[in-house]
Amino acid sequence: MDLKEKLVSSFLAFENKGILDLDSSVHSIRTKAIQNFEKEGFPSKKDEEWKYTSLKPLLKHDFSLFSTNEKSIGFKNIENYLINDIESYTLIFIDGVFSSFLSDTTHDDCDVCVLSSALNRPKYKMIVDNYFNTIAKNNNSLSELNTAFTKEGAFINIPKNTIVPKPIQILNFSTGSEKEILLQPRNLVVVGENSHVQIIERHQNLSKNTTLTNSVTEIFVHKRAIVDYYKIQNDTENSSLIDSTFVSQKQQSVASVHTYSFGGKLTRNNLEFYHEGEHITSNLNGISILNGKQHVDNHTLVNHKFPNCESHELYKGIYADKSVGVFNGKVIVQQEAQKTNAFQQNNNILIDDGASINAKPQLEIFADDVKCSHGCTIGQLDESALFYMQSRGIPKKEAKALLLFAFGNDVVNKIKIPQLKTRITKLIAKNLGVNLGFEL
């Protein structure tokens, strides 16, 4: 039995476990989703959107759908993966199960809890029923698979006129309790009018066992709201991640998603923005630093539907050894979206001959009064700059690392949380072998 057949045949047993309320609209949504997945199956390289990324090696594994052997995890096992020098709300999941002991939730000025809890309260159940799977539905077969097996995830509801006083950290850990496990976290974020929230998300394998995480996040940003969402991807060589994030924005809102990919066997990021009003700003920033045989595929979409909106996209990649990068950035400007300002830039450096990057920037413009641009560069380090630094007494290895560090620094400078900026800077320096010469 292949993985697709196993998943489809396991769905009924999964439903009968009563993981989420079968009386809610989630039940019918999941049933429809498994039917769609059964029809479409896993994507292959024959699909244009997956032309440069193959899931075949992953599909050979006999993944468990959920953990049967619980492992005891304490704070000392996970503290290195938290941003510890800031006060924050935390939502921590161990092998797909929420850990109330390790988490810090709230229902005071905002709601930071989990989906299962939200479905058990009429006030929040109505929110879930109104928003769940409304932008992720029918998007791709992997999102449908996640919807079908939605077990648990973060539920973040920010009422109108609320500035959340501290960031929210969402951390998903795999303990290695199963030899091979497929995790499918689901996050729902609703941000009310005039509100502001900062969210940090991370997936981390704590063992040497094989993990595949198929994650879906839906973010709804209402009028004049501001959302800053940060994704840290620095996992083990036996871990793969398929991360699909969908953002729906109302008028005058500002949403920013920052993606930092430093580790993992295969990482696929699907990031999509949909404009549902005027004077919207969308920011998409990312940096990938890969070595070995790592593979990162960034697929982005910004759909401009209304006039007077902006999108700004900056992705950078540094690829060493036999690593592979993919960038496919699509910007659609609908006929009604006059006065759109859309900027997209993708810059890449190949350090070794065995490394490669497949880049495909796309603009589909159906309006005539717009300002849109895109650019893509693939090259190596500037030899003249390298020579200049060596002539000033900096050894070649250090000079090379410092130039690479400077190459990615403009992406890092967009981070608005100082402590997170320090953490990302350290991770980049470590990956590049840079000695900063001072303590951060």
Characteristic terms for this protein:
single chain; 440 residues; alpha/beta; 10-stranded mixed β-sheet; 10 helices; 20 strands; globular
Describe this structure in words.
The chain has one domain. It has ten helices and 20 strands. The strands form two sheets. It has a ten-stranded mixed beta sheet with strand order 2-1-5-8-10-12-14-16-18-20, covered by helices on one side. A hairpin with a 2-residue loop joins strand 1 and strand 2. The radius of gyration is 21 Å and the shape is globular. It starts with a helix and ends in an 8-residue tail after the last helix. The relative contact order is 0.09.
Topology order in helix (H) and strand (E) letters: HHHHEEEHHHEEEEEEEEEEEEEEEEEHHH
The secondary structure category is alpha/beta
Number of strands: 20
Q: Helix count?
A: 10
Radius of gyration: 21 Å
Largest sheet: 10 strands, mixed
